[in-house]
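Box S2. Input/output pair 1.
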Amino acid sequence: MLLLYHIGKPSLYGSLTCQGIGLDGIPEVTASEGFTVNEINKKSIHISCPKENASSKFLAPYTTFSRIHTKSITCLDISSRGGLGVSSSTDGTMKIWQASNGELRRVLEGHVFDVNCCRFFPSGLVVLSGGMDAQLKIWSAEDASCVVTF
């Protein structure tokens, strides 16, 4: 889903559809009305909204860490300074890891069932999470303790 938001103006919504993969290995992608696919290659896609004179380029990851979770990742965030990552999973855990090499730093356990979302506070020292158990939790990124549950 695409969303273009300007303060004081109505939001514009759109979508991208992959028509398949070309012979060169590059996806053939079209955008819904109001949006344009300007450029696409194996590493990026550039989308614009000409009516609003807005555009964004989305880049593919250049590093993958496949051993952090054993099940599907539901959410991922990188700390404001870029040193740490946090990800939540359908295995009921969140994990804090080194963004440069994927080295596991902390395991945050306490939700029942899937953890849907996780975000660093701007300080990078606190993580907020929400799970299928209808609980919001605030965690210390320094010692993995759950400070409060709502």
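Box S3. Input/output pair 2.
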Amino acid sequence: MKRILWVLSLPIITLLYLTIPDCRRQFWRNWFMVTFLISAAWISAITYVLVWMVTIAGETLGIPESVMGLTLLAAGTSVPDTVASVLVARKGNGDMAMSNIVGSNVFDMLCLGIPWFIKTAFTNTSGPIEVNSSGLTYTAISLICSV
């Protein structure tokens, strides 16, 4: 099973290896900001595809977008952060666990605003933005409260 998963993930690993400089190596040591920015771009691209696929699955199954976003996507993004925080806290690094939790929510808040900023700044500068989500207010308030 491990070998099958390795073969299936090999194209993604190769693509990331070729596009992200490894700042642990001596040659790339001073390129850490480029590594960070390219990693953030990859996370954004993969997240876009994930949301797109969840939206298609929700439309196919007749599930509203707000329900899909609040359950599937929220759990999919929060569970790995929670597991990482628990593992770090068990090793005795509670400050790292707290910074992971706070940093994750701050990153979520920034990522919520960036698409709308791009749309208003470059696409439609005169009109309001139409958002088709009834659960957006609840999501934004939850993130702000958790931060």
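Caption for Box S3: Helices lie at 2-19, 32-61, 65-90, 94-123, 136-146. The chain has two domains: 1-62, 64-124+132-146.
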